[in-house]
Amino acid sequence: MVVLNKIYTKTGDSGETALGDGTRVPKTSPRVAAYGTVDEVNATVGLARLHANGDMHDMLALIQNDLFDLGADLCRPEMDKDKDAEYPPLRLATSQVERLEGEIDAMNANLATLRSFILPGGSPLAAHLHLCRTVSRRAERLAVELAASESVNPAAVKYLNRLSDWFFVASRVANENGAKDVLWVPGANR
pTM score, two decimals? Predict the structure, then answer.
């Protein structure tokens, strides 16, 4: 259980922070950048939820909880030591990736095939979901960069990849199943 009764600790004043295993690292480390950007994704999802209702609202709530799981996963390095840990760290599960895939397939089943790229926008919810998509793509790039040099749960990277796809499809659903998508017109302003 988490207990936060004092918010500031002053331990980060020198530009370092603690990872989930207690290791102190610079706040500019790739691992901190990756899980910090996951936190940004979560904040954008919170904005999107303000415009969502019904199933969309409920699915976004699940995603927000998953993103905390993902942040907890990314802030805890050295996966090979998980089995020896006194308290096994929380790792994102393949089932969370599979849930996203199922939701993408269900949402996409009612959408017309795209014949053009779409511009972010349409409804307020769709615009916010596009912002979620772009920030999650950035989080994915940072997680992939981290995985090139340090241990990262493969399910974490897969989750971020599926998540940006989820946001794209959900934005189309939010635009009346694509009827209000704003289509890109190549070279329209020449």
Answer: 0.91
- pLDDT tens across 104-156, in order? 999 999 998 888 899 999 999 999 999 999 999 999 999 999 999 999 999 99
Residue 166 phi/psi, 5° resolution?
-60, -50
C-alpha atoms less than 13 angstroms from C-alpha of 103 in its C-beta half-sphere? 25
Q: Can you give the residue ranges of every domain in the chain?
A: 25-76+119-180
Q: Would you say domain 25-76+119-180 falls under CATH 1.20.1200.10?
A: yes
Dist CA 66 CA 158 (whole Å): 13
- From the centroid of its chain, how far is CA 75? 14
